[in-house]
Amino acid sequence: MTLPLTTTKSEEIFASAQKIMPGGVNSPVRAFKSVGGQPIVFDRVKGAYAWDVDGNQYIDYVGSWGPAICGHAHPDVINALKAALEKGTSFGAPCLLENILAEMVIDAVPSVEMVRFVNSGTEACLSVLRLMRAFTGREKLIKFEGCYHGHGDMFLVKAGSGVATLGLPDSPGVPKSVTISTLTAPYNDIEAVKQLFNENPGEIAGVILEPIVGNAGFIPPDGGFLEGLRVLTRENGALLVFDEVMTGFRIAYGGVQEKFGVIPDLTTLGKVIGGGLPVGAYGGRRDIMSMVAPAGPMYQAGTLSGNPLAMTAGIKTLELLQKPGTYEYLDKITKKLSNGLLQIAKETGHAACGGQISGMFGLFFTPGPVHNYEDAKKSDLAKFSRFHRGMLERGIYLAPSQFEAGFTSLAHTDEDIDKTLAAAREVMSSL
Ligand SMILES: *Cc1c(COP(=O)(O)O)cnc(C)c1O
């Protein structure tokens, strides 16, 4: 350790947590298993910063894993929530707020003509898969190695995020009979997808992907990859689904589909649209969405779905994002951060590669280039762990895994980026 970082209270709380919750956490990625050491227990968050229970302050590049795009606890969101709270926390009946957020999503996301709100990204992906199968009458699914679509059985095959971080084989408890219908291909490999379609004629319901990968580290699509998938799915009567749970309202207001001009049949959303409350959504073509109950026969439901507090946080967050200059600002500061990190790595003699689009970035300790999960796995994980620890000790909170993207927010200032780069220079010089 290079600097003292007092984490006595964090350690105490986490020790107790481990006795009463598996691994001491309610989501595996929060543990520091892959980087060593103990997780930091947060006390509060505001803007670009987080404070732990020992009073340490961090510049936060996790942003609650994506939702905090306007900065944590934005006063407009908090005030709207306070007002909504007075009207009750859950209705279990239709409310106008659902229409408002639905219209905002439909206006923003090119593929979405109708939308259904759920409570998490996992739920959105599970539901969209059922819909893909219901609509096509086919069972098989193509996903990509290192992509994460929540923890549904069908998706826990060569999955990213915590599965990749912990180096887990496919999870026990997932029946073979279920995963037998999940076909996988390397990301950015259109020929592999073509081959799967050829080997399974008339059997593939669709292709689901992170149109920019964030759950195997940050991996953008190669030119023509998304377009190629659009053509292949059409040719084979299969659906194209963009899982924009991470990228929706982050890469651009209308997501990757707006930015790259490739329009899928269906889209899943989460993270940013909840503004820090639990919201997921799936939507797409009207003819497909009309199959969802009670309009159609495909069943999917939720006691707390469309919850007034969650809708309020989502509406306020999207309103804030609509202000002119939002995505230009995110791109500007994140580019400065990403280019700075790469430059410092070069100057201090570390092989590294990475990049950013809008407020999403990644840095791999490998010469690269990284086109897929296999490439990402060539990263020097031990070096990443030391880098992570060094940054933490200097008040910079990065995702505790080489296989996760980083996020900036509208609250991150030029000065925050400068401080982060100064810390990175110190750490990389000593790695
Ligand atoms: C986070 C994420 C999910 C899962 O969302 P949860 O809200 O954690 O269930 C699904 N897909 C992608 C691309 C994600 O980044």
Automatic annotation (TrEMBL):
Its main location: cytoplasm. GO terms for cellular component: cytoplasm. Its cofactor is pyridoxal 5'-phosphate. Pathway: Porphyrin-containing compound metabolism; protoporphyrin-IX biosynthesis; 5-aminolevulinate from L-glutamyl-tRNA(Glu): step 2/2. It catalyses: (S)-4-amino-5-oxopentanoate = 5-aminolevulinate. CDD domains: OAT_like (cd00610). GO terms for biological process: chlorophyll biosynthetic process; protoporphyrinogen IX biosynthetic process. It is found in: Cytoplasm. The keyword Ribosomal protein does not apply. Keywords: Chlorophyll biosynthesis, Cytoplasm, Isomerase, Porphyrin biosynthesis, Pyridoxal phosphate. InterPro entries: 4pyrrol_synth_GluAld_NH2Trfase, Aminotrans_3, Aminotrans_3_PPA_site, PyrdxlP-dep_Trfase, PyrdxlP-dep_Trfase_major, PyrdxlP-dep_Trfase_small. It comes from the Bacteria. Its EC number is 5.4.3.8. The modification N6-(pyridoxal phosphate)lysine is found at residue 271. GO terms for molecular function: glutamate-1-semialdehyde 2,1-aminomutase activity; pyridoxal phosphate binding; transaminase activity. Homodimer. Belongs to the class-III pyridoxal-phosphate-dependent aminotransferase family. HemL subfamily. This is Glutamate-1-semialdehyde 2,1-aminomutase. It comes from Planktothrix agardhii CCAP 1459/11A. The lineage of its organism: Bacteria, Bacillati, Cyanobacteriota, Cyanophyceae, Oscillatoriophycideae.
